[in-house]
Amino acid sequence: MKIIHYAVVAVLILGAGYYLWMKPPSLNPIPDSRAAEALALVQSHQAQGYPTILQAMTEHVRSMSERNQVARLGEWRVKHVEGSQYEIRVWLRDQGTTGQWFEREFIWHADLSSKKVNAASLAADGVTPKEPDSVP
What we know:
Layout: H1 2-22, H2 33-43, H3 53-66, E1 71-73, E2 77-82, E3 85-95, E4 101-111, E5 116-119, H4 122-125
Antiparallel strand pairs: 1-3, 2-3, 3-4, 4-5
């Protein structure tokens, strides 16, 4: 009887450990409030043709799905660069008609002091609108 008891406890401990190791990122919020602010600044920034960058990315995935093509949006990652500067990255994978996968990494730099977002990769440059040139 003790063996069954130990086996059940071991299975429960292993199951809990596996869950904690594999839990989705939405259950693991960003502990740094400034990093969370930088992520929100990028995701809510205006995109070309859409109200926000987040909406542009999710709409691309949805439209690919409607055309029976596969697209996957990766996890948003935030890295503190220096001072009030943060780097936000996300990858997007598209499956072409031949079955080959294409992966693009979108990178933005967010400055919390000036509340500015700048595209830092070619892929992000295609989503982020250009600021008008200031005329002296």
